[in-house]
């Protein structure tokens, strides 16, 4: 790889100040630091608190997402093949052409067939999302004359996992651009955003294109098929209306956004994030406490008209995207509360608010996107009052 190193070094003067391609230095710097470790060193006194930098933090989150990614591949193909197996629907389109050209058949019992068919839906969305987000990052870095950082690395994985497999690619591109620009760049870029950019992208898609991200149509990748998610089935008819077992729901064998259906995959991701110190166990546990507490309150109240009031905690936990939201979205270190006490308050309120939206609003049987975005807006306020109370307590102690 010496030739690449020499090539990059020879072109470096073109991108430095005064060079012909000065405006494109962020793009050169991004490529250079991606393939080689920078040789620059700190010349002043360094205040290193941890050897973990942004790049390693982001990379660790991506590793934690791998179980959800694998489950997204498998379950997307599995759900489609279950429908095709009935013989009532026929697979069409370029994905089907590529799939059959590989000598594969639509069989839900085949792990390889499920994974490959799922890949044909996840990969295009991933590419569109990352190309769009990458362009936005480079443009803003060039305007600000900043380096292109790794802030989009995790967002580029989160967005494909929180959308249905049938989402049109041009809508993914618009939603990604909106999420990165208005969720992060307008606030100053990575580390300065108030809202989670991936959730901002999903919120935009939800309100701009509701037919493609809600209802019964988008969750199974088969043209013409209409099927509700497990959560929607419960909302319309109670637990007895469900066609899957609790274990299937726990494993993620249910229709939904590609990477959000498996509680087991999210639990593995949670162990990785907590073990490496990247994800806050306080926020995850607080979300769970708020979730269980609010669900128990609704169970105690009960309802004869709204079946969601009577859904037990064990079922509420494995339906929808609570685990994914609590593990990967609520713990965003930038948009979440930063004080330890604030993390408890922030997490508990997310758990309670998410259940409140899910149960009390039958038109929208999922509440984590709105609950987390809402609490993102209040996390600085929570930290402010926690620190103010701490200062007041210390002053009283030292009088």
From TrEMBL:
Q: Name one GO biological process term.
A: transmembrane transport
Instruction: State any GO CC term.
Output: plasma membrane
Cofactor dependence is on: FMN
Q: Could you cite one Gene Ontology molecular function of this protein?
A: oxidoreductase activity, acting on NAD(P)H, quinone or similar compound as acceptor
What family is it from? Belongs to the NqrB/RnfD family.
What is its biological role?
Answer: NQR complex catalyzes the reduction of ubiquinone-1 to ubiquinol by two successive reactions, coupled with the transport of Na(+) ions from the cytoplasm to the periplasm. NqrA to NqrE are probably involved in the second step, the conversion of ubisemiquinone to ubiquinol.
Q: How does it assemble?
A: Composed of six subunits; NqrA, NqrB, NqrC, NqrD, NqrE and NqrF.
Question: Which protein is depicted?
Answer: Na(+)-translocating NADH-quinone reductase subunit B
**Per UniProt, what is the name of the gene that codes for the protein in this document?**
nqrB
